[in-house]
Design a protein that fits this description.
- The complex is a heterodimer.
- Chain A is mainly β.
- Chain A is built from no helices and 11 strands.
- Chain A is globular and about 35 Å long.
- Chain B is built from no helices and 12 strands.
- In chain B, the strands form 3 sheets. In chain B, strands 2, 5, 6, 10, 11 and 12 form a 6-stranded mixed sheet that branches.
- The termini of chain B are far apart.
- Classes of the chains: A mainly beta, B mainly beta.
- Chains A and B meet through β4 and β5 of A and β6 and β10 of B.
Chain lengths: ~110, ~110
């Protein structure tokens, strides 16, 4: 199993550009989440999904969209990039609710917005 | 609502000496608690978790943590640090059936030869 994969590993955007961060898992997990990691703040939840077709907002959802058309994929879209979105983004998945089960994290995407 | 406070932003130890990473939590109901480790430029990996079973939890790589409800703490320890333990460690809290995890700010561990 590849586990959780994320692409790209690095990305530089200009303010106002849009892009999609890709996330895929091959473990047939129902639950998938997107987090951002900023220095001194731990990880903060952006959006999450409890299954195909079902998504919900996390702690910091503004400026991001998600969709879940298949169990395997959970892309994160930046609609109009801003410098405040410079961060490291992690995708995670688990077979049960994150409160009871291990979350498996991808290697991250390091995004810089100029 | 729940939250986590990691009491040390940075811990430096000598190889072969004990490691203690301190974590206090607040939760309005019985929490699940986790410790995750992140090595440089890597994703997070689960070290151990507490989900209302035994209060002393053993994890991977010789780490363990004790859940103390009276002190609302979940400190992480290892008897003898190894150079490979140099990483950032996150204490995490959640409700048992919650979709959302709350992360602490992290503790960076440096191991001196």
């Amino acid at each position: 199993n590849a586990g959780v994969t994320q692409t790209p590993k690095f990305q530089v955007l200009k303010t106002g550009q849009s892009m999609t961060l890709q996330c895929a898992q091959d473990m047939n997990h129902e639950y998938m989440s997107w987090y951002r990691q900023d220095p001194g703040m731990g990880l903060r939840l952006i959006h999450y999904s409890v299954g195909a077709g079902i998504t919900d907002q996390g702690e910091v959802p503004n400026g991001y969209n998600v969709s879940r058309s298949t169990t395997e994929d959970f892309p994160l879209r930046l609609l109009s990039a801003a410098p405040s979105q410079t961060s490291v983004y992690f995708c995670a998945s688990s077979s049960r609710t994150p409160g009871t089960d291990t979350q498996y994290f991808g290697p991250g995407t390091r995004l810089t917005v100029l | 609502a729940q939250s986590v406070t990691q009491l040390d932003s940075h811990v430096s130890v000598s190889e072969g000496t004990p490691v203690l990473l301190r974590c206090n939590y607040s939760s309005s109901y019985s929490p699940s608690l986790f410790w995750y480790v992140q090595h440089p430029n890597k994703g997070l990996q689960l070290l151990l978790k507490y989900t209302s079973a035994a209060t002393l939890v053993k994890g991977i790589n010789g780490f363990e943590a004790e859940f103390k409800k009276s002190e609302t703490s979940f400190h992480l320890t290892k008897p003898s640090a190894h150079m490979s333990d140099a990483a950032e460690y996150f204490c995490v809290v959640s409700g048992t059936n919650d979709y959302k995890l709350s992360f602490g700010a992290g503790t960076t561990v440096t191991v001196r030869a």
